[in-house]
Amino acid sequence: MKEKKAIIIGAGIGGIALSIRLAFKGYLVTIYEKNNYPGGKLSQKIIDGYRFDLGPSLFTMPFYVDELYKLAGKTPEDYFKYQKLESVCHYFYEDGTRLNITDDNHKNDELFTEILGEDKGSFLAFLKQSKTIYTITHSVFLLKSLHKFKTYLSLETIRSFLNIGKIGIFKSMNKENVSRFKNPKSTQFFNRYATYNGSNPYKAPSTLNIIPHFEFGFGAYFPEGGMISITNSLVELAKSLGVSFTYNSHVKKILTKARRVNGVILDSHEIVSADLVISNQDVRNTFKYLLNDSKKSKRVFKNEPSSSALIFYWGINKTFDDLSLHNILFSSDYAGEFNAIFNNKTLHPDPTIYINITSKYNASDAPEGCENWFVMINAPYNASQDWPQLIAKAKKDIVAKINRILKTNIEKHIVVESILDPLGIENATGSFAGSLYGSSSNNKMAAFFRHANFSNKYNGLYFCGGSVHPGGGIPLCLLSAKITSELIR
Predict the structure, then answer these.
(1) Is residue 237 included in any domain, yes or no?
(2) Rounded mean pLDDT of the chain?
(3) pLDDT tens digits for 164-186?
(4) What is the pLDDT of residues 426-484, one digit of tens each?
(5) What is the residue range of 134's domain?
(6) What value, to the nearest 5°, has the Cα angle with vertex 289 and ends 282 and 436?
(7) Which of 97, 202, 457, 484 might form a disulfide with 464, Cβ 3.0–4.6 angstroms?
(8) HEC profile for the chain?
């Protein structure tokens, strides 16, 4: 029997995971990646002895990575190691309030009571509701295609829709969270989880309150060697199954004939035939550039694009004992920050700052006595803003805020700097307008508006990754690969 060939366009984490699943099914898989490295956003940068994970920095639901090793008949811990975080995240507010959130939710509840003045049990009650949303929705919205009729015939789907009133689809995150807590700081704490998929908590449905369950229900983890080890370990697993990676190879066009795909054309003008073609690129750009279908490209996003990010990679020649692996310095005007990002397409003068320091757990990521700071603020997607001007102003605002809250002079400790803005994200990863998660979830029907994992027009054409169902972020990209694989018989 002739061995069937599959081509995957893009070596993002979703594409790598799908290659493993297809190789297990018996396909001969080749991944074409335009960059000279795998991982897409899940890659790294090394500058003068400082190592930085370029993109995703929070690792949750590691069992979806383990599942790929088990599928290949391997013991996960022999190839990929990680540890559960006891200290999950340090939160800083402008008035001096600090929360050191841990993996002990009962202690976290005590913090909310003692520091924020909430009723005892309010934190735990919120997490219980978050788990309820997950229980009702995950088997349908996260594990199945929403674009196949048979999905809606299952008992699980029927039960989910009968319980739709319990998942918060008709109320915004902010309104729901305001109703649950007395202190605006508590509301801000949980509103932040909208940013995990690039959305606005003042618009997005409170269904997104499912996200805290990923962190507090399943735990937060740190991979040995940093986030890049997820990419590297899965690439090695894929290669062991016969997957071929071709770097510095840009796919110019997906070839179709008689409503079926039959291969791709590379930028070298080489024609490569295949039985399946799967795009792990942004789906909008796939239609616009690879299928020459601009009309379809414009129709793909019924939702607005998600937010993007502005990231400063700083080598710091000092250590800070009051910072941990994950740190949040909250804006004092959260509503204004999201209004600036989503409505005015600009940056707020008092942004919420996320600082990730992997050298806290992996000392080799920075020289001795130093730290590698990944400093990120949420940003609008690229809409032809004057980014050099915005970046210069943002750096001043970020430095001033860090100095206020940490009582330091951080600028004199910055010995290495690299910057990634929405334009750079768009150029490096192909994400439309630099949006991090494809489309936002600022609409209660957003889950249904995401593009399907398959093409209705061309047989043999599929899609996976953060711009299609079920969404962006490492766990959802891995689930996107799983859903796509199950659609391929």
Answers:
(1) no
(2) 93
(3) 667 778 899 999 999 999 999 99
(4) 999 999 999 999 888 887 766 667 888 999 999 999 999 999 989 889 999 999 999 99
(5) 84-223+305-428
(6) 20
(7) 484
(8) CCCCEEEEECCEHHHHHHHHHHHHCCCEEEEECCCCCCECCCCEEEECCEEEECCCCCEECCHHHHHHHHHCCCCHHHCCCEEECCEEEEEECCCCCEEEEECCHHHHHHHHHHCCCCCCCHHHHHHHHHHHHHHHHHHHHHCCCCCCHHHHHCHHHHHHHHCHHHCCCCCEHHHHHHHHCCCHHHHHHHHHHHHHHCCCCCCCEHHHHHHHHHHHHCCEEEECCCCHHHHHHHHHHHHHCCCEEECCCCEEEEEEECCEEEEEEECCCCEEECCEEEECCCHHHHHHHHCCCHHHHHHHCCCCECCEEEEEEEEECCCCCCCCCEEEECCCCHHHHHHHHHHCCCCCCCCCEEEECHHHCCHHHCCCCCEEEEEEEEECCCCCCCHHHHHHHHHHHHHHHHHHHHCCCHHHHEEEEEEECHHHHHHHHCCHHHCCCCECCCCCCHHHHCECCECCCCECEEECCCCECCCCCHHHHHHHHHHHHHHCC
Cα 102 to the center of its chain, rounded Å: 22
Q: Which residues contact 252 (CB under 8 A, 6 or more apart)?
A: 264, 265, 266, 267, 290
Tens digits of residue pLDDT in 191-225? 999 999 999 999 999 999 999 999 999 999 999 99
List the structure tokens of 147.
């674009």
Identify whether 279 is part of a domain: no
Which residues face 454 on adjacent strands?
Answer: 462
So what's the pLDDT on residue 165?
66
**How far is 22 from 318, CA to CA, in rounded Å?**
47
- On whether residue 356 sits in a domain, the answer given is yes
State yes or no: pLDDT of 420 exceeds 60: yes
- Name the domain count of the chain: 1
Mean pLDDT, residues 395-418: 98
329 neighbors 355 (Cβ within 8 angstroms)? yes
pLDDT digits (tens, 9 = 90+) for 332-343: 999 999 999 999
Is residue 155 over pLDDT 80?
no
Which tens digit of pLDDT belongs to each residue from 311-330?
Answer: 999 999 999 999 999 999 99
Q: Say what the pLDDT of residue 140 is.
A: 75
pTM: 0.94
CATH for 363: 3.90.660
How many residues are listed for the chain in this entry?
489
pLDDT of 124 above 60: yes
Q: Does 273 map to a domain? A: no
**Could you give the angle at the alpha carbon of 79 between the alpha carbons of 74 and 82, nearest 5°?**
120
Dihedral pair phi/psi, residue 452, rounded to 5°: -65, 165
For residue 388, the one-letter residue type is P
Q: Are 208 and 193 in contact (CB under 8 A)?
A: yes
